[in-house]
Amino acid sequence: MSHIDRSLIAELPLFADMPAAALDDILHEARSLRYPKGKAVFQQNEEAHSFFVLLHGRLRVTQVTADGQQIVVRFVGPGEIFGVAQAIGRKDYPGTATAVTDSIALAWPASAWQPMIARYPQLASRTLQTVGGRLQDAHSRLREISTEQVERRVARALLRLTHQAGRKTPEGVLVDFPVTRQDIAELTGTTLYTVSRILSAWESNGWVEGGRQRILVRDPHRIFLLAEGDGT
Amino acid sequence: MSHIDRSLIAELPLFADMPAAALDDILHEARSLRYPKGKAVFQQNEEAHSFFVLLHGRLRVTQVTADGQQIVVRFVGPGEIFGVAQAIGRKDYPGTATAVTDSIALAWPASAWQPMIARYPQLASRTLQTVGGRLQDAHSRLREISTEQVERRVARALLRLTHQAGRKTPEGVLVDFPVTRQDIAELTGTTLYTVSRILSAWESNGWVEGGRQRILVRDPHRIFLLAEGDGT
DNA sequence: CAAGCTTTTTGCGCCTGCTCAAACACTTTC
DNA sequence: GAAAGTGTTTGAGCAGGCGCAAAAAGCTTG
């Protein structure tokens, strides 16, 4: 059995202020797994055999409808807990998690969840906060998709992406993982054609710079105004 | 200080299998409050002073956008915990909860949450399941609103309403609290005009029967087919 | 029971954004 | 470095559903 060093997780909010012995105890059941770009960590409807903490990389969580349409539920970044299906009372995963960059995750068997929160109740409490935050995100998206026009929704999605994974460059803020127009369409409830048109228009204004699976925001304030401002 | 009988909550899933002493302990800090139809239990952005369990009645939870547009987040029914803002790490309520029928709720001060889950960890675990369920609902709605046409979304919303609060009558299933066309529009991300047109069309087919703040589903299977079926 | 208010219906015109098609650009593979 | 694969752009046409307006239908209040 491979040993996992507690320093890998000691800094994460989920495990903050936990004694070293507790961290070692928690890590005892964990495996560390590599997911090369494109590989799925788990599939929608698959039995929820594990839950995870992402150590490195980036995942895209999607759901497909009965007729094959897809939406992007969220992107998962380092330090986040994910795949907590059994914690919210599900037997299977409600979505598919796919690595969009080479990723490393810790995995615990689903059966470890109950004993773990029994011994360390703050884990339940912190997971509740995480899930609560996701619920609010989902409600924000519902509010936006219900009431706002596509361009504004795309602006908001782009801002979120830069906050989640923005890397500052001399040119502006770059979304630091591969994102397709299709991804943005599935985040905002529109089509890849419409996203492409909107980004092209912004690019011709010099506000962003596109590229294959690449978006650089040259003028974040401008995008912010599109997202939040009045019609001016 | 008024005493609240533990029999009021002993049957609720949230408190299932808890000893009588624990229930009494939990109830010690609770107040029971009446909300006549139309009164708000709490307002969006208000400081989250309390969390609640609904004993009787029905609430509508809404959010308004900066420019005054509104969406319906959910309806709350008897037995449900709600207003758990502080449990998910918020200082204020993210939405407004309004009684749509005369309602009675138990209220605990927000400050009681941490001690309560420290003493009864299963409360955190069960709240996590509740919030997780809401997250899945929100994702379902996002999926639907992103990928489906309005008529199908209205069909789904109507089915949900009948499952949440349907009363069987000889004529069909009646949604057992006042729902306006506007409510359904705000649930499905459309306008009250479109909802009215759709319900009128269904009514002329004999599948539903409308009325002021009233919807009777005469042919639930038909509505189910609209929601789930292929295009036939 | 008349007046006033809220909710619902319906008509009409229009626009946002979708669909489909085709070309183009960039990467990866052999 | 050609070929194949994947992602992006752009045009043209069209329609689902929105916005507005006005009337009708139900409550409810004095």
TrEMBL record, chains A, B:
Start and end residues of each HTH crp-type domain: 148-221
InterPro entries the record matches: cNMP-bd_dom (IPR000595), cNMP-bd_dom_sf (IPR018490), Env_Response_Regulators (IPR050397), HTH_CRP (IPR012318), RmlC-like_jellyroll (IPR014710), WH-like_DNA-bd_sf (IPR036388), WH_DNA-bd_sf (IPR036390)
Stored SMART domains: cNMP (SM00100), HTH_CRP (SM00419)
UniProt domain Cyclic nucleotide-binding: residue ranges: 14-101
Coiled coil: none
CDD domains: CAP_ED, HTH_CRP
Keyword tags: DNA-binding, Transcription, Transcription regulation
The name this protein goes by in its record: Crp/Fnr family transcriptional regulator
Source species: Chelatococcus albus
Organism placement in taxonomy: Bacteria, Pseudomonadati, Pseudomonadota, Alphaproteobacteria, Hyphomicrobiales
